[in-house]
Amino acid sequence: MTAPSESTGTSSPPLVSARPTAPRTFLAILRDTWREFLDAKVLYLLLAVIGLLFGTALTGKIEPQPSGRDYLTIAARSMAADLSGIDVANQSLLDVAGRLNGAVYWIRSAEPLGGDLPDGRWRATLSRTFLPMVAEPESNAQIQKRFGVIADGQLWRVVKATETSSDLARRLGSQTWEMTVEPGRDLKLLWPNQFSLFGGSLDLAGSKGAPLGLEVLILQKLLATGLGGTILLLVCVAVTAAFVPTMIRKGTLELLLVRPIPRWQLLVFKYVSALLLVAGLLGLLVSAVWLITGILAGIWSPGVMLALPSLLVFFSLLLAVSVLTGVITRSVTSAMLVTVAYWAVLFIFGQMHNQVVESRLRETNVGRMRPVSIADSLRGRRPRREEPPKPGRTPFHRTTIGRVSEGIYTLLPHTEDLDNLVDRQLMRDYAVAGPFRALLESPEFSWQRGLGLTLLHTVAYLAIASFIFSRRDP
Hints:
Blueprint: H1 22-39, H2 41-58, E1 61-64, H3 68-77, E2 103-112, E3 122-130, H4 140-146, E4 149-150, E5 153-154, E6 156-163, H5 167-172, E7 174-183, H6 187-190, E8 192-197, E9 202-203, E10 210-211, H7 212-240, H8 243-247, H9 252-256, H10 263-297, H11 307-329, H12 332-364, E11 369-370, H13 374-378, E12 384-385, H14 400-411, H15 415-429, H16 435-440, H17 447-471
Antiparallel strand pairs: 1-8, 2-3, 3-7, 4-5, 6-7, 8-9, 8-10, 11-12
């Protein structure tokens, strides 16, 4: 019997240890980060506070105030000019001086067919006086088409219009129509409403109320980019401040380095994991704000969703600062305090920049009549002259503090521009005008510049942290 040959022509493949791929490593770190999130007790406190804030908002009550006659008058006045393509929130009457049609319109009488509410019909008498040498009589079809349409908005829709003026009156330049009108698509946003909390026991909008669009804007800012967003980001800063110091603690880091991946990649994976989890929380916050304001006001504009990328880009910057501080100091407390202090610096110099911009605008307009927007003019507001500063008082942008703050602001990421981007979008969605919108529309603010500088600083902080982490001993 012969012994079996050592070489049979076939051989079993060598055993190769499975090397974890980058996606598998990232998923493992993401699971670890999720467990750290769940272990943070302050996160549950955050959810409780946010729930209390939203619960308080849900006690809100919005009650329309009688205003139908006022908006019929506004619609009649606006017919004296061609407002197509005009931004009534920013442009003044001077911008439409060449668009006047030589006629004057007014509401002679009006009565509601039901209640004086933003969804109710009205019967109104419209009168028109014109110069026969300049303008011509208008037909019922023209009145139906033009009444209630201001620029690209529609306050009223004419259901029926019947001219009641005589031929002689028409030839002399006078016309009258009996109309039945119903609310247009934009009237609801502009209609004054009384907003109160706790079943109407706490009034927040004054006795005359405020336009519904303005109330929704303030509520969305308070819950998303204001108090609600600030609380969420502050708690997330406190939670994520422990991630890097805990990871680089001796023993934990040695265990992680068993995985054959570069150390910088380990740090970046931790950063991205934390950012994804915070993005989920921000998504829930913004979606809840959209849902709550929709339930209260019946307005489902998606503009508030722009707050999600704005808040996420801002937090990515804060997280990069926290990671860099954690790598350098290996201290949870230091990472948290430095990040909060950096946030405070950004806020302070952002507000000072707003004051500098406003100071420049005031100085430019000193002695001039401050233009009143078309929307405000139709409401009966009058322009006023910009007053010069008090004797001996230097405009803020010319002071040493103003100049120094502008120099420092130039070197910082312009996160204020990202917040202003959200404000501008909400003001457009909800037809909000006024000096604050004029300030935000200033070319001094650029969301492209703000986004670019913020991302540039974020990448720089993360790159420095990765470089230090790659060269430092465990």
